[in-house]
Amino acid sequence: MGLTVTLPAKEQAELGSKFVTIACCGDSHTRGGYPQELQKALQRAESSTTWKVLDFGACGATASKTPRAYAKSPVFKQALAIQADVLTLLLGTNDAHKVFWSESDFVENMTNLVKQIQENGAARGRAPSIFLGVPPPLYHKGHFMASLLRQNVINRELPRIIPQLAEELGVGSFDAFSALGGPKLQMPNSMSPDGVHLNQVGRRLLAEKLAEQVLIHQGLLSPEEAPDSPMSCSSESTMEHSPPARRRRMTCNHSVTRSRAVRQTC
User: Quick one: pLDDT at residue 227?
Assistant: First the structure.
């Protein structure tokens, strides 16, 4: 993964297109998850722009101070170094572990992450636009991994906390929770058998939803053009044949960590 991804202004002008770099930060909802689909979604929707979507996910990562704190991960340092135009931060699923969860700790450390990103950008003269993500719902299916997490935290508390925190910090947000079934868990077809991670359908839905927010932010899509509610998708072909400007959805992949009683998966 190269760190030099931003083209010089002269080279961008010669290409005759806009160049946008996006750093996707988070846990295993990000690592090997939605970034690749986001690249495809953005290119389908706005091919006159050159998009560079980079995956800086870390399996088992948390915002909170745990052995897997994202702030201490090597990939976070890499994400800060590339000076991206847009940075997405999708954390919370692993924080909801029965051993880890503390609302005050989560809010404090998410705030610290955002401030670190902003301060790093200011020091380099290139502060990225930040989007905080609300994680996908937790679908309990009797799987061991899902049983390690607090479903009420993921399905009730995080959808309340994260948008409010984004507003207080003056940054953007994207709602994977609603896009992937919301509190009624209406999209089980978007989840893997463990009830925690997204499958291919879910990853594409998340990417489409996030692409919508990025396009609006970049002035390439008006809010009026964006759908008001999550698009249902029973198969991957549903999105493949829909008009590019209307294909929107989002998703993420997470992992769970255990220290002694906590096990890590990716």
Answer: 61
The reply to whether 13 falls in a domain is yes
Does 157 fall in a domain?
yes
- Taking only the tens place, the pLDDT of each residue in 175-206 is 999 999 999 999 999 999 988 999 999 999 99
Q: Which domain holds residue 203?
A: 9-246
Q: What is the CA radius of gyration of the chain?
A: 17
Q: What domain count does the chain have?
A: 1
CA 142 to chain CA centroid, nearest Å? 26
Long-range contacts: 108-114, Cβ < 8 Å, 24+?
109/63, 109/64, 109/65, 109/69, 109/71, 110/63, 110/162, 110/165, 111/165, 111/169, 112/71, 113/63, 113/70, 113/71, 113/89, 114/89, 114/169, 114/171
Q: Whole-angstrom Cα distance, residue 41 to residue 38?
A: 5
Q: What is the pLDDT of residue 148?
A: 85
pTM of this structure: 0.79
